[in-house]
């Protein structure tokens, strides 16, 4: 299949990245290999979008530090980048809204590119015909922009993220529908994981199962941000678990400790706060 027939894909990972680990980076590589291997898609970019401080997760350090660590981790990557839009929002932003932001950004960029392309006028033709042809060409370009011509943003996650859809009051039903229906999900899971069963047991996920790509992680990697923070609290080495530049940054700023882990203790997670507030109105 020629590249022109493939759907260009941008992988978007949302999360705490507290801190970013080698496992986070591996998710992108695994997803890229899988999607490119189908012959239907071409992954052109990966975006890391750290959540803002308003998420209020226990032990969540400042977004300022988490963004810098993510930028250090992707410094040598040719296709991964860090986006700060979500982290800079004063209020917590739903994942579906973050996906929409990046899709609209791609559409606007593609639209600008199409409109800036010159339309050549054939010699001997009347100006009016050239103008009509240009109007038609731009209209057609806008239509193509909304379909084949624009890369598609898809959410990249791990199996635990997928299963969080089942946590009561954590997700809005319409947001889950938007994520899996309008954008699509690439979920990196492990052999023997119940992700497929979880999809089967959910009517919404089952309905959109063709837009959910399960990627098996055959070379298992059990690194997690939680375990990294635990090791740091205990004065243990985290080398080779996070990129070297990230380790150096953490040590330089003494980022994780017993005190930092108590941040937001007793505070209700932002999605649950919003759900409770909406129920009271």
Report what the structure shows:
- The chain has helices at residues 22-37, 63-73, 95-116, 127-145, 159-163, 173-183, 195-200, 203-207, 225-233, 244-253, 258-261, 270-280; strands at 7-15, 41-50, 80-82, 152-158, 185-189, 212-216.
- It is of the alpha/beta class and 281 residues long.
- It has a single domain, classed as Rossmann fold, CATH 3.40.50.620.
- Helix 2 (63-73) links the parallel strand 2 and strand 3.
- Helix 2 (63-73) runs antiparallel to helix 10 (244-253) and helix 3 (95-116) runs antiparallel to helix 4 (127-145).
- The radius of gyration is 22 Å and the shape is globular.
- The model is unreliable at 118-127 and 136-147 (pLDDT under 50).
- One of its GO terms (biological process) is NAD+ biosynthetic process.
- Its main location: nucleus.
- Residues 12-230 form the Cytidyltransferase-like domain.
- Keywords: ATP-binding, Magnesium, NAD, Nucleotide-binding, Nucleotidyltransferase, Nucleus, Phosphoprotein, Pyridine nucleotide biosynthesis, Transferase, Zinc.
């Amino acid at each position: 299949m020629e590249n022109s027939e493939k759907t260009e894909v941008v992988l978007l990972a949302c999360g705490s990245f507290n801190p970013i680990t080698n496992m986070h980076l591996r998710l992108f590589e695994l997803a890229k290999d899988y999607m490119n291997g189908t012959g239907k898609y071409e992954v052109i970019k990966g975006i890391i979008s750290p959540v803002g401080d308003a998420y209020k997760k226990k032990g969540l350090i400042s977004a300022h530090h988490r963004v810098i660590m993510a930028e250090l981790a992707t410094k040598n990557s040719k296709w991964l980048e860090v986006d700060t839009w979500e982290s800079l929002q004063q209020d917590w932003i739903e994942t579906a809204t973050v996906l929409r932001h990046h899709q609209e950004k791609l559409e606007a960029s593609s639209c600008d590119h199409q409109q800036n392309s010159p339309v050549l006028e054939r010699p001997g033709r009347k100006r009016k015909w050239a103008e009509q042809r240009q109007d038609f060409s731009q209209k057609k370009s806008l239509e193509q922009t909304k379909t084949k011509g624009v890369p598609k943003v898809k959410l990249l996650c791990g199996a635990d993220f997928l299963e969080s859809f089942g946590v009561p009051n954590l997700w809005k039903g319409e947001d889950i529908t938007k994520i899996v229906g309008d954008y699509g999900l690439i979920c990196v899971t492990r052999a023997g994981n119940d992700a497929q069963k979880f999809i089967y047991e959910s009517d919404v996920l089952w309905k959109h199962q063709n837009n959910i790509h399960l990627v098996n992680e055959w070379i298992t990697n059990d690194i997690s941000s939680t375990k990294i923070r635990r090791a740091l609290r205990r004065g243990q080495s985290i080398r080779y678990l996070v990129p070297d530049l990230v380790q150096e940054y953490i040590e330089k700023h003494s980022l994780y400790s017993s005190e930092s882990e108590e941040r937001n203790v007793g505070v209700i997670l932002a999605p649950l706060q919003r759900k409770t507030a909406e129920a009271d109105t």
